[in-house]
Amino acid sequence: MSEKVHSSYGEELGFNSDEEGYGRDAIDDVPPLPPDTDPELAESSLEAHGGAEGRDERPARGHAREASPPLVTNGDAEYREEEAGDTLPTDMSDTSDSEPDKPHNGGDVEKCSAAHDGKVLLRQEFPFNIDQMFTMIFTNSKFNLELLAARGTTDYVQAPWQAQGGLKCRQISYTLGLTSGPIGPKEVQVTETQVMNKCSKPGMLYSIDSTSENAGIPYADYFSVEVHYCLQRVAETKAQLALYGSVKYKKSMWPMIKAFLEKNTMSGLEEFSRLLESRLTAEADSAVPAARKSRRHRRVIPSSAAEVSPAASVLPAAARARPRAPG
């Protein structure tokens, strides 16, 4: 029987000669059952000897892994699959930049699979729902537009998230003003590639790698700037935001120039993280109801004291007790 099944469907099910022999041996090893044995007991006995396991595993082996299309990245930005965790939700049709995918309602704590290399720029908890904070930072929200304006960003163009090879990625371009003094470039053109890692779970975790390529400044093609965003759920209305930054060099350069570039680049990243932290803190403070912030305790006046007139309350006790003059 197994030979007939193999000759008809073996290639489609992914059978080979070893697996076929294993399945046949596993079934042959099952001891014969008495003729009056209950069918349910017979099935459970087969499962105990590995028969059910063999049936479940064979079709799974037949699934070939689909080849991922090339990821559109910028410069050296690429996805390292060995660092990936679980896959994103299967519904990747939503490329809107205003709402994330359907939230993940699992009770397990998700862990970021990224290496978290580089300098820790920010690690702080904020009183926001994690999906709300993702929307604030990674969409054309009012918060993000105000953050860009405060940073001196112009010509901002943000593409929607697109699914590629089980990931979500997009590109952003903008012009960033520089404070390099009277000498040197006054602005830099930035093309930023953002990749959402597979370990991301809406409602639980957002792991995003950002790689920025610069133009319009000296040695712009010698290096790229990498920032990792890690948003993790702490509670229903609390999330932790962590930022890690580093400079990746594509060409060798003089140590003095390299040190100068890295110092200025990291200084810019630290300034951005401080600005982001202050803006998030201000947004959290503004969300507190005004009534709670302006609430004052009113002093309760006893009823006996309330009956005394204001004029009598300021007179000395002797004046209030002075007897009336005879008429």
Helix-strand blueprint:
Blueprint: H1 2-13, H2 17-28, H3 39-48, H4 51-61, E1 119-126, H5 130-138, H6 142-151, E2 153-158, E3 162-164, E4 167-177, E5 187-196, E6 205-215, E7 223-235, E8 238-249, H7 255-286, H8 290-293, H9 303-306, H10 310-314, H11 317-320
Antiparallel strand pairs: 1-8, 2-4, 3-4, 4-5, 5-6, 6-7, 7-8
Task: Characterise this structure.
It comes from Trichoplusia ni (Cabbage looper). It holds the Pfam family VASt. This is GRAM domain-containing protein 1B-like. By secondary structure, this protein is α+β, with helices and mostly antiparallel strands. The chain folds into two domains: about 60 residues, no CATH class; about 210 residues, Alpha-D-Glucose-1,6-Bisphosphate, Chain A, domain 4, CATH 3.30.530. It is built from eleven helices and eight strands. Strands 1, 2, 3, 4, 5, 6, 7 and 8 form an eight-stranded antiparallel sheet that branches. The longest helix is centred in the C-terminal third of the chain and has 32 residues. About 35% of the residues have low confidence.
The count of β-strands is: 8
Order of secondary-structure elements: HHHHEHHEEEEEEEHHHHH
Strand content: 15-25%
CATH topology heading of the largest domain: Alpha-D-Glucose-1,6-Bisphosphate, Chain A, domain 4
Domain count: 2
- Molecular shape: globular
Low-confidence segments, given as residue ranges, are 4-15, 17-30, 39-107, 305-320
GO cellular component, one term: plasma membrane
InterPro entries: Cholesterol_transport, VASt
Protein name: GRAM domain-containing protein 1B-like
GO molecular function, one term: sterol binding
